[in-house]
Amino acid sequence: MSEIINNREQMTTLNPSKRQAMIKQIFKDLHDGKNIDEVKAHFDAFIGKITIEEISQVQPDLGELSIEEMHNLHAKHTELFKGAIVEDHKTDRPEEQPGHPIHTFKRENRELEKLLSSNLQIHLNEFVENDSIENVLKLVEDINLLLDIDKHYSRKENLIFPYLEKYGIFGPTTNMWRIDDFIRDAIKDARTKLVHYAGDKKTVVEVLNFVIQEVNAMIYREENILFPMALTNFTEDEWVKIADESDEIGFCLTGPEAVWKPERKDLEDKAISEGYIKMETGILSLKQLELLLNHLPVDITFIDQDDVVRYFSHGKERIFARTKAVIGRTVQNCHPPRSVHVVEELLADFKAGRKDTEDFWIKFKDKYVYIRYFAVRDEKGNYIGTLEFTQNISPIQAIEGEKRILS
Question: Does this model's pTM top 0.70?
Answer without folding.
Answer: no
